[in-house]
Amino acid sequence: MIGIINGPNLNLLGRRQPEIYGTDTLEDINNWLLDYVSAYGNEAGGGSLGSEGLIFVQSNSEGELVGAIQEMGFDPAVKGIVINPGAYAHYSLAIRDAIASVPVPVVEVHLSNIHAREEFRHTSVTAGACRGMICGLGKMGYALAVESLLL
To answer: What is the pLDDT along the chain (151 residues), one digit of tens a residue?
Structure first.
């Protein structure tokens, strides 16, 4: 199983700044990712997720995100976590500490290129606790993050 954690305002995808984030809703992205991972695992020779597949969490609450990281990160069935912490990436030491505390690898994803945006978005305090970070590739970033966790 791979955990997919999405942070604040990602529930507004498709309506929130489509010129930056696109017109897909979070549900659209989750469904696309399920299809992608199924094809990757079955046809492209990727690692197997078994019958559990992906588990999705979205919250606008920092504490709920910390709880999800801890719960997934210590679940023996979870192979890794993909997280889009949204704006929390830029200042949440609590989320960074949660990522650093769990034994499973975590990959940070951002739909937009945070380095091409406002100055305050250029730094991610959470990325340093992650195996890696992918930004600017839209929903494909989620797929690449999952693939990296299955290798």
So the answer is: 999 999 999 999 999 988 888 899 999 999 999 999 888 765 444 455 554 599 999 999 999 999 999 999 999 999 999 999 999 999 999 999 999 999 999 999 999 988 877 787 778 999 999 999 999 999 999 999 999 999 8
> Which residues, other chains included, contact 65 with Cβ-Cβ below 8 Å and sequence gap of 6+?
5, 7, 57, 59, 83, 85, 88, 95, 98
Active-site residue flag, 122: no
Given 90, 110, 122, 142, which residue is catalytic?
110
Active site residue 110: yes
Q: Among the options 21, 36, 88, 142, which is catalytic?
A: 21
Closest CA to 66 of 87, 42, 90, 92: 92
Alpha helices in 44-116 (DSSP H): 62-73, 93-101
- pTM for this one? 0.90
Q: Check: CB of residue 149 under 8 Å from CB of residue 54.
A: no
**Is residue 84 helix, strand or coil?**
strand
